[in-house]
Amino acid sequence: CLFGIRGRRGYNPIKVSQMKGSDIPLYNGLPTVLKGEGYRTMFFMTHESQYDNMNAFFRTNGYEEIYSQENYPRDKVVNSFGVQDDFLFSFAIDRLKTQRQPFFATLLSLLGIGAEQNNFGVDLLARRRPCAFYTADNVIGARSEDRLFVFNPSTEQTFLYLDGELQHTEDSAFNALRQHAFSMLQAAQYVVGKGETQ
Fold it and tell me: Which end of the chain is more exposed for a tag (fewer CB within 10 A), N or C?
């Protein structure tokens, strides 16, 4: 845990601060402390740096250098997750070998994408979540096994999909996804607003 907040019921400050224009919380974690002690701080990820607003979050919180899909050869980008882990590790090692000062480097590989992500207190190893919530720059949504609810706040448009097919009426199952998405967003905003991320 880089910032001492991971154990708070799965709260993820990057996810909460991912909307463009939102305030990015400042944490006094390992990157900030070590940077203050003269360490060079680097973060390596497989995908685009703007995914989940990681670039802004990590730069605000002590990382001097961010390496991401934008830094890698195009032919090494294999899917929406960017480059494969073996390339990420080779790329990072090549850069770390040349460091002349003490450094602190973090590598976010695809191996780190697991059941504990975004869990808001649900033990996903013990039980299955009925749906998942997410936000992006311009939408909020929730997905169950067969349905997808997407809402765009700027246009106030709602998109409903059942088994990949666009639907034109919102039934109780879609309404449950809507309620889940907005309650999760509200819970995250509450936690941040109360300063419970520090």
Answer: N
Report which of residues 72 and 9 the model is more confident about: 72
Separation between Cα atoms, residue 179 and residue 34, nearest integer Å: 42
| 170 within 8 A of 162, measured Cβ to Cβ | no
Cα 151 to Cα 171: distance, rounded to the nearest angstrom:
15
What is the CB-side half-sphere exposure of residue 105 using CA atoms within 13 A?
18
Query: Residue 73 — very low, low, confident or very high, per pLDDT cuts 50/70/90?
Result: very high
The angle subtended at Cα 112 by Cα 111 and Cα 115, nearest 5°, is: 105
* pLDDT given at position 102: 92
Percent of the chain with pLDDT over 70: 78
How many CA within 13 A on the CB side of residue 128?
Answer: 4
Neighbours of 155 (CB within 10 A): 9
